[in-house]
Every structure is written in structure tokens, then in C-alpha cells.
Amino acid sequence: MPTATPPGCRLNIDHVRPRCRGGSDRVSNLVLACISCNQAKGALRVEEFLATRPARLESVIAQLRRPLRDVAAMNATRHQLVETLATLGVPVHAWSGGRTRWNRAAMGLPKSHTLDALATGVLDLDRGDAIVRIPAQVLVVTSTGRGSYARTTPDRFGFPRLRRPRSKIHHGYATGDLVEAIVPRGKWVGKWVGRVAVRASGQHRITTLTSRFDVSHQYLRLLQRADGYTYGFAREIRLSAGHEPAYSGRTLKGGDPGNV
Q1: How much is the pTM?
Q2: Domain count of the chain?
Q3: Spatial CB neighbours of 238, under 8 Å, sequence gap ≥ 6
Q4: Which residue among 4, 26, 166, 247 is the one 20 to 30 A from 122 at the CA level?
Q5: What is the pLDDT of residues 190-218, one digit of tens each?
Q6: Which letter, b or e, does each residue of 201-231 get, where b requires 16 or more Cβ atoms within 10 Å of its Cβ?
Q7: Same domain, yes or no: 49 and 128
């Protein structure tokens, strides 16, 4: 909450109204604060912490109202979408987020997007309705982009220092392809799976979760063309609210599993 953050200072996420005093994790209750301000504020309300700086307090309160405008825009879009779909003659039903939260709490389920999708709609407990099974794993799709249109590589001052090749495919591979590399000898001997960055020389660079090294295109095998996304599987959040890394391990269609 300072007026100016010192260079190199790390920022924390701070609760305007502390959780110990009834605050929540909703966006309108969160702000960025440097470590010193976060520690100085502690469990104080923002009105108490900035009592001697009314101008700063007014600025913070004004910023807290901005996310509410985004929520209003989303709600307006949602209602417009429902009305448009209804004109197509297909059955359309809509429920509030409060209903989803109530269903999830009634079933004793933790918070996750997948479980929220299962808990959407009317759940009549008196009739015996219940969520009896939840998925063990979910598909994770991550947007990675399709590269850039830059034709030159700049130096640290932003001036072009070399020209990039116009062809994006070299020796049958394009940057971002998911490949399997079987290295027969040397430091990186073994079987690896990862994303490749191509070079015209044919000595491509492969990146896995644990390492990055150069390998000849002769030792590569294409697994999946780069389409701007990575695909993997992650275990669904359990009742203990535990998480696991969102990559596919030995599943070659997703993530960057690394050495297998």
C-alpha cells in the first residue's frame, strides 16, 4: 500500500480486511503490498492502518471498487448469453454461484473448478440427490502461444543484432513440437521427452521439466505438432485439499514429462 515501492522490493498479497476479523479471499478484499507494509499492517483494518493518511486511504478504497465493475460486466454478459441461447429453442437453465457453493458444502467437497461443475444445479437432499463419484484426474490444457513474428534478435539495448531465419521448420521439426529424444551416448544418454527449439544446423535444443540440452535431429521422434497448447493430466483435488503438479508424467500427449 505504499505510494512508491523501492526498486527490487517484492510484493505480497494482503487482505484489506484481515481474515482473522472476518475478511475473505475475494478479489475486492485483496491488494498488493510490500513486505514492510504487510507486516506493519498485521491484523489491522485498512481504516486503522491509514488513519493518519486520509488521502492514501481514499485512493485505496477507490481502487477496491474497480473489480466490482468487472463483475457487473460479466453478469451482464451472462444474462445476455442466456437470453440469446433461449431464442434458439434449446432448454437453458441458469443457477447462482451461491447454489453451487451450497451444493458443494452439503456434499463435503473442497473448492475446485471441476467439482464446481459437478455441483451446479438443483440438488434436492430430501429426495436423496447426491454426488456419489468425483473424477480421479482432470485434463489440463495450457496455452503456450505460437511463437512470434520477430525477424531479428535484439541486443540488450533493443537494436537488431542478427537476422532470424524465415523458415520455421528445420529437418522436419518446428519450435514447440513435442518430441522424444533417444540419446545413445554422452552426458545426456537416455530417453527424454520435451519441447524442441529448432536450429538450421540440425542441432536442436530440447527442454524438459528438469533439464535443457542440445541434441541432433537424427535422435528425435515427433510425438505431437505444436498447436499452441500443451495437454496433460493432473490428479483432482482430494478431500484433504491436496494438490499435485499439473503435468502428465509418462503420458506423452501433455506437459514436458522429462526423462522417462
Answers
A1: 0.48
A2: 3
A3: 110
A4: 26
A5: 999 999 989 889 999 999 888 899 999 99
A6: eeebebebeeeeeebebebbeeebebeeebb
A7: no
Q: What is the pLDDT of residues 103-135, one digit of tens each?
A: 988 888 888 888 888 888 888 888 888 888 888
Domain that holds residue 115: 95-134
Question: How many Å apart are CA 233 and CA 245, to the nearest integer?
Answer: 9
The answer to whether 166 and 147 have CB atoms below 8 angstroms apart is no
Question: Which position has the grid cell 475478511?
Answer: 23
Mean confidence (pLDDT) of the chain: 80
Q: Is 46 in the same domain as 151?
A: no
Is 146 in the same domain as 130? no
Do 181 and 242 touch, CB atoms closer than 8 A? Answer: no
Dihedral sign computed on CA atoms, order 100, 104, 105, 111: negative
- How far apart (Å, rounded) are the C-alpha atoms in residues 213 and 203? 10
Decide: 181 and 190 in contact? Cβ < 8 Å.
no
Q: How far apart are CA 36 and CA 16, in angstroms?
A: 15
Burial of residue 254 (number of CB atoms within 10 Å: 0-12, 13-18, 19+):
buried
- What would the pLDDT profile of 14-65 be if each residue is shown by its tens digit? 888 888 887 777 777 888 888 888 888 888 888 888 888 888 888 888 877 7
Cell numbers for 58, please give them. 481514499
> How far apart (Å, rounded) are the C-alpha atoms in residues 195 and 52?
54
Specify whether 173 is located in the same domain as 257: yes
More confident residue, 89 or 256: 89
